[in-house]
Amino acid sequence: MTGTVAPLRRASTRPVGARRRVVVLVVGVAAVAVSIVISLSFGSRPVSADQVVLGISTWLRGETPADIGALAVQSRIPRTVLALLAGAALALSGALMQAITRNPLADPGILGVNTGAALAVVIGIAFLGVSSAFGYLGLALIGAFVTAFFVYFVGSVGAGGTTPIKLALAGAATTAALSSLVAAILLPRQAVMDEFRYWQIGNVGRADWDTMSVIVPVLLIGTVIALLCASALNALALGDDVAVGLGVHVGRIRIVAAVAGVSLCAAVTAVAGPIGFVGLMVPHAVRLAAGSDQRWLLPLSALGGAVLLTLADTIGRVLGSPGEVEAGIITAFLGAPVLIAIARRTRMRAL
């Protein structure tokens, strides 16, 4: 893949010390803990700190509390866990895509990967009768990989090969087309619209332990592969020729990292629908705070993504009370200005 690397390397022109990165790591871990408490405490029914403690303690013991507030806390635990897992996976996926394409606009949502996964799942539900978590995961993986290949193919056609702007345009066009197909499948089926609604927008409100147990192995494997690729991705940021001189198999590392990134995105989409902009916003914020070293960027992005999506889900529950606003709407509302700012500040060769 080709394209200017300046936007992703600019943050590394000022060295970032290890102490600062450790501070960012500690802040990230603390933010995750705070976001968990906020997610369990707020929603359509606010609860007290004592009820949060009671709800968690009784859940750990496998008991059903008599207190309504504690019971509400227990009901929020699965969706909080899913928000943490999904946010971490989407941010990590976005960081990988930005690294392997050297494209500051790379994101599972912008490149159409999660919409492709959602379309495959919707087709499976509507026409094939798929209803199991394993079926959703398999279809999401197929849809995500087919879409990723298609977007890269379209973005590489023409003079200059693959450039950031061509990839972004190919992804945006593909996302629009696939979203229209999803809507065309869902709209005539009003009786099951609520069942399918979150495949258009993205939401973690349908979390359950059985479904999460299906995707956790994929998330773990994808995360391990991503972290193992960190050093090679650092070399890749210096340019293909330099990376080859440092002993990196450029083609192989791009394929392995891409498989990890697409798999992370597909697994999340299989259970939560297409949630956009998490993979775009978080890596850029982490890069500003901790530099571009992928050995730090990848794990810190996972922490940041977990915090962002958990808080987005909580905000949606509070704003939409007694119902809820889908987390995908909140992340889109937050992410659109970020996308505009990145596009304005980024110098892209195709422009």
TrEMBL record:
Please give the biological process terms from Gene Ontology that the record holds: siderophore-iron import into cell
Q: Which GO terms describe its molecular function?
A: transmembrane transporter activity
The source's domain of life comes to Bacteria
Q: What Pfam family is a match, any one?
A: FecCD
Q: Name one GO cellular component term.
A: plasma membrane
Keywords of the record, alphabetical order, are: Cell membrane, Membrane, Transmembrane, Transmembrane helix, Transport
Q: Does the keyword Kinase apply?
A: no
Location of this chain's protein in the cell: Cell membrane
From the record, give the transmembrane residue ranges: 22-42, 81-100, 112-130, 137-155, 167-188, 209-233, 253-284, 325-343
Q: Does the keyword Nuclease apply?
A: no
Q: How does it sit in the membrane?
A: Multi-pass membrane protein
Q: Read off the Gene3D superfamilies from this record.
A: ABC transporter involved in vitamin B12 uptake, BtuC
Q: Which family does it belong to?
A: Belongs to the binding-protein-dependent transport system permease family. FecCD subfamily.
Question: What is this protein's record name?
Answer: Iron complex transport system permease protein
